[in-house]
Amino acid sequence: MESTHPVRPDLPSEGCARWGEFAGHQQFHEPVRFALDHALAEHLQNIVHYSHATQVVLRFEVEPGCVRVTVTDDGTGFDPTQAPQVDTSTPIEARPIGGLGIHMMRRLTDELVYTRLPGMNRLEMVKKFGP
Amino acid sequence: MSISKQVNGDECEFMLPARVDGPTANQLEEEVLAAIRGGAKFILINLAASNFLCSAGIRVILQYHRQMKGKGGSLLVSRTSPEIDQVLELTGFRDQIVEKF
Fold first, then answer.
1. Rounded CA gap, A75 and A37, in Å?
2. Structure ipTM over 0.95, yes or no
3. Residue A131's pLDDT band (boundaries 50, 70, 90)?
4. What is the CATH number of the domain that holds B76?
């Protein structure tokens, strides 16, 4: 099962709504729906703020044991998988304000794969169905 | 759905909607700034109705938690759902910004 959705690059909530519809139709368990809802929202929010994309396309694919959400955009090249790790043990007063969104994407997914294509970014977010 | 608030002297409680996404985080920041300008010293972010909290929302909470603490006041989060607890746990902030009774 797969599904492709062009969405507005300036409206993350539209992409999350498409994911919610797909996840509901597929009857995914709540942890899977929840994790990819958050991860997708963070990535789409980064596209709004930093990528200047004019086109964003989402692709949802159910594979054996997992679901894959692929986001393709034509914005500025940026590889979130190379962003610095966040040290959550640092005291709150000393914690940097930035980097939390990518940290959440990493923690909520089982796999993040970035590919730079000619003029395009592609990010694949994979969530396993099992524990 | 928008943010509502209750003010009692220098205490201010904000009730957040189900989905605290980027636009809601921006609205929360405006509301918190207005409350601080209005003399609030103790601010509570009530998340009883929320089940989604993006990093932009956490950034607002973190930034003004620090600011209020530095001025001898407080900004804490209250009545978190299991979903919100999970998100705060992931970021390492749960034990530091959730109100303890």
1. 21
2. no
3. low
4. 3.30.750.24
